Amino acid sequence: MKVLLAAALVMLSACSLPSPTGDPVVHKLSVAGQPYLLRQLTAGTWTASAPGEASLVSSTSLNRAALLQAIEKISGCKVTDSDYSHQGAQLDAQVDCASHLKN
Predict the structure, then answer these.
(1) What is the dihedral of CA 13, 17, 22, 28, to 10 degrees?
(2) Beta pairing class for 90-96 and 45-49
C-alpha cells in the first residue's frame, strides 16, 4: 500500500504546472494621450504596443519618434532599427546596448 501511495504522489507531482517566471516587465506610458505598453523581448529587442486585442500602434512620424525615444530612455540603449509587426499592432525596435546612451 505504501508503494502505491508513493507512486501516486510521484505521478501527481509530475502533473503540476510550472510557475510563471521570467515574464517581461511591462512599462506603461502615454504618448499623445494614447496609452502604450513597452516590453523587452530579448537583450536586443523591445516592443511597443497599444493595450487591447485589436488596437493598432499609431504610425505617425511624431508618434513613432516618441515611442522610440521612450524605448531608448527605459532601456538605456540606442535604437538602431525599428519596424511594425502583427499588422501594425506592435512596433519592434532593435537596440544596441554596447553603446549605452549618455544623458
Answers:
(1) -150
(2) antiparallel
43 pLDDT band, cuts 50/70/90, is very high
Residue 58 included in any domain: yes
Please give the single-letter amino acid code of residue 58. S
Grid cell listed for 41:
523581448
Burial of 11 (0-12, 13-18, 19+ CB in 10 A): exposed
Q: Answer yes or no: is 29 within a domain.
A: yes
Reduced to 3 states (helix: H, G, I; strand: E, B; else coil), residue 12 is helix
- Residues of the domain holding 59: 24-96
The answer as to whether 7 is a domain residue is no
Neighbour tally for 64: CB within 10 Å = 18
CATH at 65: 3.30.1360
User: pLDDT by residue (tens digit) across 77-102?
Assistant: 999 999 999 989 999 999 999 876 55
Count of domains forming the chain? 1
What's residue 20's pLDDT? 54
